[in-house]
Each structure stands twice: as structure tokens, then as C-alpha cells.
Specification:
Layout: E1 2-6, H1 13-24, E2 28-30, H2 31-40, H3 44-54, H4 61-72, E3 81-84, H5 90-102, E4 109-114, H6 117-125, E5 127-130, E6 137-139, E7 158-159, H7 166-180, H8 182-188, E8 193-197, H9 202-219
Parallel strand pairs: 1-3, 1-4, 2-3, 4-8
Antiparallel strand pairs: 5-6, 5-7
């Protein structure tokens, strides 16, 4: 299957992308991984992306599209892939359509993870990170530390990242609504969108997604 995964910040896209790709036995292609891989390998696209990032500018769509094209042409993606973080806007979605048409391929589904805005704010703004080790992550509601403000693992101080403040989260949601959400309507016009609720336990959401994708595949 060839799938695009969309949803607002805090919808759990990263977690679900990894799980779904593993269960469907297709590569998980994320924008973040593409950038890191190209920059670390010092590819031409990686060097170009880094030059924009170092200058504090957004990486142009054509650079992101070029990286995605290279990755989708790798042998492990012949049987399908799951795109996470790309396309991020309608122009990228249109470019993806052109790429797939050139290769005589098409998307099978666009999986939209739906979550109420207040829940997004609660999920992200409630995160607390250990200053000693950023892999130690807690949540004031869902996974609170035994002692407030103290990491259970190493005793380090827990803090809220600036990116996780409520004001910042709401600004990120505004960007999502204005730039990324329009691709849902774009793909709805093609009959590709499958919307599921991203509320509940992680495994339950995964099974919900797999069931929806299976029904979509059977309907084609």
C-alpha cells in the first residue's frame, strides 16, 4: 500500500507511522528522517537543505520533494510506503501526484488522524522532559512522575520545553489549519481520505487504522 499519514501536532502520527509501517511491512518515510539522512550523508540535496536551515529559512518545497522522490525510488519502497510529514501543503501534494504518475503509481489511501484541538493542547502542553536525559519523558496527566518535577529514572529536573507551551501549541495548530489541513480536502476530492479517531490506547488506534485501511483497500 502507498499511504499518506496526516493529522495535527499531538495526534500521535510518529507513533502510529512506525507501528503501521511495521505491520504493513512497508517503509516509514518521514520528513525528519529524510532531512537527517541527507544532511548526514552530505548529499547535494542535504547540503542545499542545510544551507537554508543554517540561514534560518524554510527549506523550499522542491528540495523536500527531491528527497522524497529519491527515497521512494529505493528498492524497499517498490511494494509501497507510508509517508509521514510529506506532503505538508497542497503544492507538495500536487507534486507527489505528478511523481507517482511518472512512475505509473498511485496512492491507496490518505489516513487522517482526527483529534479534538483541546486534546492536542492537553497532550503536548502536559509533557515534561528530564534535563539530564531528553528520552525520559513524562506527562502531568497521562504518565506523571512519582514526585512532581523530578524524573523517576535519574532524579533529574523535569521541565516544559518552550515548543510545548500552550501558546506555542496553539500557534502550531494555526499553521497546521492554514497550510496542511487543506490537503485533506484535496485528497477527499480524489476519494482517498480515511478518517479515524486518534483517541484511546495506542494499540487500539493502530487496530482502528488497520481496519479502516483494509476496508479502503477492499473497496478499490
Amino acid at each position: 500500500m502507498r499511504i499518506v499519514l496526516v493529522g495535527p501536532p499531538g495526534a500521535g502520527k510518529g507513533t502510529q507511522a512506525v507501528r503501521l509501517a511495521e505491520k504493513l511491512r512497508i517503509p516509514h518515510i518521514s520528513t525528519g528522517d529524510l532531512f537527517r539522512a541527507n544532511i548526514s550523508r552530505q548529499t547535494e540535496l542535504g547540503k542545499l537543505a542545510k544551507s537554508y536551515m543554517d540561514a534560518g529559512n524554510l527549506v523550499p518545497d522542491e528540495v523536500t520533494i527531491g528527497m522524497a522522490k529519491d527515497r521512494m525510488e529505493q528498492p524497499d519502497a517498490e511494494g509501497g510506503f507510508l509517508l509521514d510529514g510529506f506532503p505538508r501543503n497542497v503544492s507538495q501534494a500536487e507534486a507527489l501526484d505528478r511523481l507517482l504518475q511518472e512512475e505509473s503509481m498511485q496512492l491507496d489511501a490518505v489516513l487522517d488522524l482526527e483529534v479534538p484541538e483541546d486534546e492536542v493542547v492537553k497532550r503536548i502542553a502536559g509533557r515534561r522532559i528530564c534535563r539530564n536525559d531528553s528520552s525520559h519523558v513524562f506527562h502531568v496527566t497521562y504518565s506523571p512522575p512519582k514526585q512532581e518535577g523530578v524524573c523517576d529514572v535519574c532524579g533529574g529536573e523535569l521541565y516544559q520545553r518552550d515548543d510545548d507551551s500552550e501558546d506555542t501549541v496553539r500557534k502550531r495548530l494555526e499553521v497546521y489549519h492554514s497550510q496542511t489541513e487543506p490537503i485533506i480536502d484535496y485528497y477527499k476530492a480524489q476519494g482517498l481520505v480515511v478518517t479515524i479517531s486518534s483517541l484511546g490506547p495506542v494499540e487500539e488506534i493502530t487496530q482502528r487504522a488497520l481496519g479502516a485501511l483494509k476496508r479502503e483497500d477492499a473497496a478499490q
